[in-house]
Design goal:
The chain has 163 residues and is of the alpha+beta class. The chain is built from 5 helices and 7 strands; from the N terminus they run βαααβββαβαββ.
């Protein structure tokens, strides 16, 4: 199997901290934590272990290449956050599509994923569209960046089935 997905319940605390540390080493913290929700690996571990968070790691041929989180569950929807590591960048679209298929099979009660992306991250907004997210529009002055500055966000949704 090309891809394996592992829920946080099956990852050690050190494996979860390593996701944060790898984001830091690869300069990805600002893209993932655009509002500076977690400033340390231990804060990230607490967030990942929170009862309202559903984290899973995506491995490609045994190499961790991405992870994603669902939170803010409501009815049949959840907010979707994802991060692709540099080792998997040439396969990001393939990884994302496999992830969405796996997620649909693993969490069939969720019919809609909600994405909030900083508007200034044009690459991420285009990427969300390529993955099948419908770009709904911009929400002015709705996010903080890691320095506390207010910024605009792009709202997107991904749906399965009759959603």
């Amino acid at each position: 199997m090309i891809y394996d997905f592992t829920h946080a319940a099956h990852l050690s605390d050190d494996e979860i901290r390593e996701l944060y540390n790898r984001m830091e080493r690869e300069g990805l913290l600002d893209q993932f934590f655009h509002a500076a929700q977690c400033k340390t690996a231990d804060e990230f571990l607490r967030y990942a272990r929170d009862i309202g968070t559903w984290l899973f790691r995506a491995d490609r041929y045994g190499e961790p290449v991405a992870f994603a989180m669902l939170d803010s569950f409501s009815a049949e929807s959840a907010y979707f956050h994802h991060c692709h590591f540099r080792a998997g960048w040439k396969h990001t679209l393939e990884t994302a599509l496999h992830t969405l298929d796996w997620l649909q099979a693993s969490c069939p009660s969720i019919k809609t994923l909600i994405g909030i992306t900083p508007a200034k991250n044009k690459l991420a907004v285009r990427y969300a569209g390529r993955c099948g997210f419908k770009i709904l529009g911009e929400i002015p002055r709705s996010l903080y960046d890691r320095d506390g500055n207010v910024q605009d966000a792009v709202l997107s949704v991904y749906t399965w089935g009759n959603a």
